[in-house]
Amino acid sequence: MTEMPVDRPDVIPPSRLRRAWDSDFAWSFRHSPVAMVSAFFTALLVLSAVFAPLLATTNPYDPASLNLMNGFTAPGTPNAFTGESFLMGTDDQGRDVFSTILYGMRISLFVGFAAVLLAMLIGVTLGLVAGYRGGWVETLIMRTADVQLTFPAILVAMLIFGIAKGVTPVEYRDQMAIWVLILAIGLSDWVQFARVVRGATLVERKKEYVQAAQLIGRSGFAITFRHILPNVLSPVLVIATISLALAIIAEATLSFLGVGAPPTQPSLGTLIRIGQGFLFSGEWWILFFPAVTLLVLALSVNLLGDWLRDALNPRMR
Amino acid sequence: MLDLASPAPHDPRMISFILRRVFQSILVLLIVGLVAFSMFTFVGDPIDNMLGQERTDADIARLRAQLGLDQPFPVQYFRFLENAVQGNFGISYRQGRPVADILLERAPATLELAFVSGFLAIFFGIVLGVFTALRRGTVAANAVMTISLIGVSLPTFLIGILLIYVFSVELDLLPSFGRGDTVNLGWWSTGFLTWSGLKALILPSITLGLYQMTLIMRLVRTEMLEVLRQDYIRFARARGLRDRAIHFRHALKNTLVPVITVTGLQLGSIIAFAIITETVFQWPGVGLLFINAIQFVDIPVMAAYLMLISVMFVAINLIVDLLYFAIDPRLRT
């Protein structure tokens, strides 16, 4: 906190923007080139995914806009039949690779954000309850977390995907795939949140403000969610960012393996899966551009998370 | 360091710890078994899968009684466990053969792949870890560290595709899919004995082992740097021992305790990530079988894989925990 001048009317108190700019957090950001570069790429990719319909030259989901004659156009060179030119080339259907990447990134990011949100909701709630209530509730929740942690998250996600797919009627499977994917990744990833929040809650529970709230008779629900929750949020933010990178990779992996986003709604992973088929026939761009996009996206979010962890937790520096 | 006050193996605390861990492991397996069994019960009706279009209600009732599906849930669950323990996992919906036979046929491919990648990861992990610790700050060590960072951030399947692109498409040196020629030793089919089988192993095992190798390398490096600062190393130097003896006989030996535990836990991950590697390289192992089972909702195969991998994971965790307990006296309080 900066000191506020109280008795000096000649000194204008710094604006809110100015104070945010001067905070430790912003200072650490301005002095970390890695953080700035990764924040730039994250923002660039997220914004281009959000504004995909404006940026994309064609809508890859609209069959009317496709011309099969444009198939396998190399990047930058005009097509032999139609003379059209594409920045990143086209796939076998004549779809513009640049546009499919923009739309694919939308699905990758949507699944990633939604899955992390789900994991966060489950993990934070269970962590708060476990930490505040204690007793058999805590034992049950944390034991479940331990058991789940024994298995790699990607395996758990595959299994949940498989079961959910089996439960969904055949005719809805492709439509539901995205939601099943979110459920699978979200459920496979809540443990980290629960563990950290429980640990922080155990510390907060003994503090005076909680005792004061108990004394004036606030309910356990109000104390945990209104009073304790805001105080345990900063580690949650760090885990959420790192989880987002992991969720994006998990989604891409599942889709690449053919147990994720269907070809009718391709994510970056699905595009890489499709592109791998053309690796031997020389159409490298169908694989290359989605793969590089995925890499840059996952790496920037990951580095941003690393920086956030250091910036929010000075003890870990 | 040996702690003289630490309890002997027959200490009651140790026995109670072991019993508790064994009990927990059995409980986990029972829960996993329940999940696997519920998949059979709630995901699709086995009767649907077994009887054709022209079935009568009498047929359904007869088959239901024959399969024991009219029994109460706990009885069915118990029978399911009984069968699973005896290696009877039912019949694959897709292939129409007993799941146990299919698993047994696929197991050698996965185990050989996991064995080679585990060996690569441990060997190169320790060698490179020691190298980067001893030659800290040199160009070569920094290069290894930077490359390892990239290795960790690349998703497994992209590493596989990259290797295929370089070594199969561009250089045309190594096969990009399959196991090559295999030799049957009894029911075990091995790729170790033919030239093409060995060549086929190279790319998949690098893909699978790279992440674990990086992890072990970083761990060995950190531990080694930590140990080299200790007094007994300085004492050894003062005694005039040669560098080689200090580094390998005194320092490395003490770094290996955490390496063993982490490596043990990573063994499970190798099996799990084999699913990805096997799909990239169309390696005919258990992981590829599992992915195909998910794609085609082949419940018996999924359930059997789940049970099998859980037994493996729980056993590995139990052994690592007990090892750790035996090695680290601080845990015994």
What does this protein structure show overall?
Chain A: Belongs to the binding-protein-dependent transport system permease family. Chain A: Keywords: Cell membrane, Membrane, Transmembrane, Transmembrane helix, Transport. Chain A: This is ABC transporter permease. Chain A: Residues 105-305 form the ABC transmembrane type-1 domain. Chain A: Its main location: membrane. The complex is a heterodimer of chains A (317) and B (333). Chain A has 317 residues and is mainly α. Chain A has a single domain, classed as MetI-like fold, CATH 1.10.3720.10. Chain A contains 14 helices and no strands. In chain A, α3 packs across α5 (97-133) and α5 (97-133) packs antiparallel against α6 (135-150). The two termini of chain A are 20 Å apart. The model of chain A has no long low-confidence stretch (mean pLDDT 82). With 333 residues, chain B is mainly alpha-helical. Chain B has a domain at 107-298 and 308-331: MetI-like (MetI-like fold). Helix content of chain B is 73%, strand content 2%. Chain B contains twelve helices and two strands. Chain B has helices at residues 12-42, 46-50, 57-66, 73-85, 99-134, 139-153, 156-170, 195-228, 231-238, 243-280, 286-295, 299-327; strands spanning 183-185, 188-190. In chain B, β1 and β2 (188-190) form a beta hairpin. Chain B starts with 11 loop residues before the first helix and ends in a 6-residue tail after the last helix. Mean pLDDT of chain B is 80; it is low at 1-7. Chains A and B meet through α7, α12 and α14 of A and α1, α7, α10, α11 and α12 of B.
